[in-house]
DNA sequence: CTCATATCAGGCTTACTGACATCT
DNA sequence: CAGATGTCAGTAGGCCTGATATGA
């Protein structure tokens, strides 16, 4: 997929960190979203379900903050999940602006399924790296993310 | 931008390699494309100019293979670059199907400019890492990319 | 005939922007 | 009044599918 030309050295810019990063991420993203697509789900769905499971029912705004999903995208995703009976929307009695979103039993089962496949995908993604190298990589990435996340 | 909630631990899935990778890449992509956008350019433009500079004039099909840009997207990008006088399209006398694309002087100047900014962006991206850690990171990423690139 | 080239028209995705009515 | 919430419409870049016309 990335083969330059028959027996030709790759372009210089293919050694730039930003290129390596975005391309590797593209592969990772493809692996993950293919996995999800096979289960008729998307990344947003998994993030929402997992976050509800971990932190409990929440308003769409809170969910948006925890999942790093835009409020405007939240609406559609919740609709899709609700249509499949994986989450439920109920009004917040203490604040009539809000919907309280909660997972259903079917949602939890779906989450378990998606999670299992996701874990398997991590292994496929990191296949060529040793355990130690995997930790190195995640450590470095986490530091980058942390650095750029703090200042905004 | 990634702040979960006021004083709340991040969700478990935010430690997954695929998440760290795609999010870091998203930051990188934003940094890079902002840089390019400020110069009224896009990633495709840089890739094309740099590849022409490095390997010389080529047909659009060859360019597509070297830059990993789809032929269908090639057309529009070349149009944009040609409109700005950065590249030139001329017919290939030995094969009338082909256009031969070549960089102009203005194109080379633009490339130099974009490249300088791109290098600066790499530094911003990797700011929290030492020189040694940067090499570790790029080494690991390159191995992942290589691994996943070979088998298809 | 098959294959390569160039073009055009469109889809899909994640992220984001802006507008809006509603409620606190 | 400012500010938060939910909704809807639309944008943009990168990647991709398909159909087509032309020429090797």
Q: Care to describe what's here?
A:
The structure is a homodimer of 152-residue chains. By secondary structure, chain A is mainly alpha-helical. Chain A has helices spanning 17-38, 43-55, 60-67, 71-83, 105-125, 131-150; strands at residues 58-59, 87-91, 99-103. The first copy, chain A, has a three-stranded antiparallel beta sheet with strand order 1-3-2. The longest helix of chain A has 22 residues, at 17-38. Chains A and B meet through helix 1, helix 2, helix 3, helix 5 and helix 6 of A and helix 1, helix 2, helix 3, helix 5 and helix 6 of B. The structure holds a DNA duplex (24 and 24 nucleotides).
Give the arrangement of secondary structure elements.
The structure is a homodimer of 152-residue chains.
Chain A: H1 17-38, H2 43-55, E1 58-59, H3 60-67, H4 71-83, E2 87-91, E3 99-103, H5 105-125, H6 131-150
Antiparallel strand pairs in A: 1-3, 2-3
The structure holds a DNA duplex (24 and 24 nucleotides).
Whole-angstrom Rg of chain A = 19 Å
The biggest sheet of chain A, with number of strands, parallel, antiparallel or mixed sense and barrel status, is: 3 strands, antiparallel
Secondary structure class of chain A reads mainly alpha
Biggest protein-protein contact in the assembly: A-B, 60 and 60 residues
Secondary-structure element order of chain A, N to C: HHEHHEEHH
Helix content of chain A: 55-70%
The low-confidence runs of chain A, each spanning 5 or more residues with pLDDT under 50, are none
Q: Quick one: how many beta strands of chain A?
A: 3
- The overall pLDDT of chain A, averaged over residues, is 92
**What is the oligomer described by this structure?**
homodimer
Fraction of residues in β-strands of chain A:
5-15%
Distinct helical segment count of chain A: 6
Spatial strand sequence of the major β-sheet of chain A: 1-3-2
Give the distance, in angstroms, between the N- and C-terminal Cα atoms of chain A. Answer: 36 Å
């Amino acid at each position: 997929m990335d083969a330059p030309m028959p027996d030709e050295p790759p372009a210089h810019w293919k050694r730039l960190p930003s290129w390596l990063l975005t391309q590797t991420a593209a592969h990772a993203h493809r692996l993950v979203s293919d996995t999800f697509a096979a289960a008729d789900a998307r990344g947003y769905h998994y993030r929402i379900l997992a976050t509800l499971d971990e932190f409990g029912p929440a308003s769409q705004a809170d969910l948006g903050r925890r999942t790093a999903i835009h409020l405007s995208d939240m609406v559609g995703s919740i609709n899709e999940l609700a249509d499949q009976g994986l989450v439920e929307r109920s009004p917040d009695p203490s604040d009539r602006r809000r919907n309280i979103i909660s997972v259903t039993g079917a949602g939890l089962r779906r989450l378990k399924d998606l999670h299992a496949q996701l874990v398997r995908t991590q292994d496929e993604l990191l296949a060529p790296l040793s355990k130690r190298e995997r930790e190195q990589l995640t450590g470095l990435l986490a530091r980058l993310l942390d650095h750029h996340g703090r200042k905004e």
